[in-house]
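To illustrate the input format used throughout this study, we show a single complete record. The first block contains the structure-token representation of the backbone; no residue identities are included at this stage. The design step must infer an amino acid for every position from geometry alone.
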């Protein structure tokens, strides 16, 4: 008999500007009533820009969260302030960074001892990078980071295994600019360029999931860029 997938837990997490709407999703065969157990990691995925339809239900966000869960990590998706049932108003990344920190603190209390796997898509990747000086993720995934649209110059250099996924036909983010920025960080990220993929990875979500899954399963130090 196939292992069951528990229904997502719908949560309301206390945030700095009101309650934050969130979903906690469990790996296959696990769930809130499966009994006490320690998890090696917990995943958090940040969604794209709130003023342009970004929400935790975004398909790219869901795909990355699914890859995390496939590797055994309970995973949180949440709505930034002002999105869905989350309180507050859009705050140009400042308040959204505080929202992420509040969600990460909640996850640390709910799943003590679990390392953090952190991810973001587009605006969400910028927010994830902004939080690095106060979070210490074990793994970092940034999908289509909007280099050139937001200030990436003062961001903390990632010190964990780091994946950047970019489509070479991204109509909103210049793939070459992302590559130049990634190299300039000196952090040695693994870069995966999906040939023919646009900003939202239409028709390429399975490829995106495979890339993230491959990164989660690879040994540290494998940081070469590839096109797939």
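Output of the design step:
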């Amino acid at each position: 008999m196939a292992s069951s997938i528990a229904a997502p837990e719908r949560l309301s997490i206390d945030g700095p500007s009101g309650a934050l709407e969130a979903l906690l999703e469990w790996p296959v065969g696990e769930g809130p009533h499966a009994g006490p157990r320690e998890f090696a990691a917990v995943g958090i995925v940040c969604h794209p820009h709130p003023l342009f339809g970004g929400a935790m239900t975004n398909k790219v966000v869901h795909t990355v969260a699914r890859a995390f869960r496939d590797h055994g990590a309970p995973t949180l998706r949440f709505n930034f302030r002002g999105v869905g049932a989350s309180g507050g108003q859009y705050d140009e990344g400042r308040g959204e960074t505080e929202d992420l920190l509040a969600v990460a603190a909640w996850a640390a209390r709910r799943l003590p001892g679990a390392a953090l796997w952190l991810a973001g898509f587009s605006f969400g990747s910028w927010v994830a990078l902004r939080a690095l000086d106060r979070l210490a993720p074990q793994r970092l995934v940034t999908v289509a980071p909007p280099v050139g649209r937001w200030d990436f110059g003062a961001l903390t250099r990632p010190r964990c295994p780091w994946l950047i996924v970019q489509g070479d036909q991204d109509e909103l983010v210049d793939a070459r600019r992302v590559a130049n920025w990634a190299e300039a960080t000196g952090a040695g990220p693994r870069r995966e360029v999906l040939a023919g993929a646009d900003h939202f990875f239409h028709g390429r979500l399975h490829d995106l999931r495979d890339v993230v899954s491959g990164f989660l399963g690879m040994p540290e130090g494998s940081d070469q860029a590839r096109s797939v």
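Structural context for interpreting the output: The first strand starts at residue 9 and ends at 15. Residues 224-228 have pLDDT under 50 and may be disordered.
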